[in-house]
Amino acid sequence: MEKSIVFTLIKTSCGRKKYSELSDKKGLINRIRLFWFILIASIRDLNLPNPDKTKN
Fold first, then answer.
1. Domain-wise residue ranges, the chain
2. 48 DSSP assignment
């Protein structure tokens, strides 16, 4: 399964889990909530390193 481009913006595991939950829901209010979540989460995670690109 290919990861979404949104995962480059949302970098925490709990944020990615919440994104998955919100993206499964349908309806206008749920879509607005999803876009609002992406905006706030991407701003909060701006200074965090991307866990997909870090070397262990």
1. 6-44
2. S
Phi, psi (deg, nearest 5) at residue 45? -95, 10
In this predicted structure, what is the pLDDT of residue 28? Answer: 97
Assess contact for 12 and 48: CB atoms under 8 A.
Answer: yes
* Gyration radius of the chain's alpha carbons: 12
User: What token pair was written down for 50?
Assistant: 């991307």
Do the beta carbons of residue 6 and residue 19 sit within 8 Å? yes
In the numeric block, which tokens belong to residue 21?
A: 């939950």
Q: How many helices (H) and strands (E) does the chain have?
A: 3, 0
Q: What pTM value is reported for the model?
A: 0.80
Q: Which amino acid is at 13?
A: S
